[in-house]
Design a protein that fits this description.
The protein is mainly β. The protein is built from one helix and nine strands. Strands 1, 2, 3, 4, 5, 6, 7, 8 and 9 form a nine-stranded antiparallel beta sheet that branches.
Length: about 180
């Protein structure tokens, strides 16, 4: 009886030791974290830019890597004096690179500076799988209390979400 008890206990110890050595694939529940998002639309006055802008701060919690992403797209305004500026796309076929070149992004949807979503990518290493995360719509309905929208008399408008975390949930996370 003592022998069978010792044998069972040692078998359990081997099983528990083996279970502790199992490595699971990357499973990031929340995806990327955006701590500040800003977008603007120029006034449309002669001589001013015709492009809208978007910028945000993003962190990959799995690698503790953070960067700032900024790009222009459009044109989103025009005037009767200046010729139209060339189109700058910011879509899946034309993503922008962030300050840390391991990150890139594009507008997953855009209905104006007050209603858009972002698709963010990060390849942590050259041989690592690139993770894509997509935000919900960034607007006043989804971020009440954190949403700021301003329009000046010139027609320049901006919106920002700050003081909270915007999650870009992974679209291709391993399970």
């Amino acid at each position: 009886m003592l022998f069978s008890t010792l044998f069972a206990v040692s078998g359990l110890a081997v099983t528990l030791g083996s279970a502790a050595a199992i490595h699971h694939p990357r499973q990031d529940a929340g995806g990327f974290e955006i701590t500040y998002a800003y977008s603007d639309k120029p006034s449309g006055r002669p001589g001013s830019s015709q492009y809208c802008g978007v910028s945000f701060n993003v962190t990959d919690p799995a690698t503790q890597t953070s960067t700032q992403c900024t790009a222009e797209h459009g044109p989103c305004t025009n005037n009767s004096v200046d010729p139209p500026e060339p189109e700058k796309l910011l879509d899946a076929d034309h993503p922008a690179t962030c300050a840390d070149a391991g990150f890139s992004f594009y507008l997953a949807s855009f209905a104006g500076i007050g209603n858009y979503s972002l698709a963010v990518a990060h390849g942590a290493a050259p041989d690592a799988e690139t993770q894509w995360g997509v935000t919900n719509l960034i607007n006043s309905e989804n971020y009440p209390g954190y949403w700021h929208y301003n329009c000046g008399g010139s027609g320049f408008c901006s919106s920002a979400v700050s003081g909270t975390v915007i999650h870009a949930n992974f679209a291709n996370a391993s399970t």
